[in-house]
Amino acid sequence: MNSKTFDPLKHASPANLTPCDSYxxxxxxxxxxxxxxxxxxxxxxxxxxxGYTGLLTAHYxxxxxxxxxxxxxxxxxxxxxxxxxxxxxxxxxxxLGYSQIAKRWDLTTAKGVYSEFSQAVERVEGxxxxxxxxCEPQQKGYIKVAHNPKAxxxxxxxxxxxxxxxxxxxxxxxxxxxxxxxxxHHQAYGALRLEDGFGLNPLKLLLGxxxxxxKRNVKLYEHSCVEHWIEENGxxxxxxxxxxxxxxxxxxxxxxxxxxxxxxHIDNRFLPILSNVIVTEPLTDAELMACGLKTKQVTMDTRxxxxxxxxxxxxxxxxxxxxxxxxxxxYAPIFQSRLMLAMKQCFPALASKSLAYNxxxxxxxxxxDIPHVFCHNRVGYSLGYCGSGVSFSTQxxxxxAQQITGHQAPSLPLYDNALPKFPLPKFRRVGQxxxxxxxWLRDRFx
Length: 446
Description:
The protein is an alpha/beta fold. The chain folds into 2 domains: 15-85 and 203-269 and 367-421, FAD/NAD(P)-binding domain, CATH 3.50.50.60; 142-195 and 272-363, D-Amino Acid Oxidase, Chain A, domain 2 (2-Layer Sandwich), CATH 3.30.9. It contains 11 helices and 18 strands. The strands form 3 sheets. Strands 1, 2, 8, 9, 10, 11, 17 and 18 form an 8-stranded mixed beta sheet that branches. An 8-stranded mixed beta sheet has the order 5-6-4-13-14-15-12-16, sandwiched between helices. It has a two-stranded antiparallel ribbon with strand order 3-7. A hairpin with a 3-residue loop joins strand 10 (235-239) and strand 11 (243-252). Helix 1 runs parallel beside helix 6, helix 1 (52-65) crosses helix 9 and helix 3 (107-130) packs across helix 9. The longest helix is centred in the first third of the chain and has 24 residues, at 107-130. The radius of gyration is 21 Å and the shape is globular.
């Protein structure tokens, strides 16, 4: 199977896939892989998946609870979504804004969710500092750009809600200030800015987490894809190509790279969505001036089908958005062309700028638009980050470690409820196709 066309809703296993040829992979080597699982072993807790969530859950289990934990990674750490994302550390709350959370539940819930996501950003910063992870954190600030007048009004309301109810000084930026002080964005009507978001190199961060485990001698097996997960006699047997691990508890942390038929605990509870990222050649001083790019803060727009972008340390522009619906189409030229067109509409001075990198990766969306970190009957999982996993994975891992050891997480929708199952799961992609067309029309005309 080709790594570029892997599709978790089509293929039975993510095993034997090569790392992504991304910009991040050009900046650091994955290094030597840990040995694979061979023979029969036991542990108290097994974690399936060696991305941010899996590695950090193992870290917290070992550090805070002295648990005998073992991590199984299907390929090599640095293969999945944790190595493919755009490196945005921000207070993401899934697809719901905080005022929407307050309307769906109540203000107390919105404050609780906001606190969890604030702690997530703080955890990333704390881990980088405590373990001296050289992952190139950039200038602080998260800018959300209004792409039309209606979105501008919604951003004004969001800024007021955050400032009034959540205790943060959310800054509203008018179009003139945005142009003069941040960027000459040709589709911007204004923006909202929060102080504590920032960009980093996500692969270097991930490898830093791996180093944390290796230095602590936490068992981490690479190239050890779980082919069968059998529950019997109160135990879990995880069978790989060359080994078997028997444990009391299991945490599934494969995120969107989990096959569609893996365990009844998570089957049909998430929708894998392709995100597509392009990176330009370094911008010249003249191009930076023509684009008015005076900041390296992380930026996203208000579209339903969002675009996100930031200047990298070497002045390349990273620009991302939705990709194909099916994995077989992931690298079809039309999706790169669409991103390039969107980038040039935002920054016309880059109309002839050449690209250096283009890659895709799967993220997991939840039916109810919020992440779920849930443990029940000695099985846990964290799914549905929908693009906010760089930061929230830290808090999710902390809460997973709490829950799987019998401690109580805060009573919030993030932790209280299992992920809802998708109705008619065989038709998830048909629904996604319809939603994309609805989003395109809504973003263009409303």
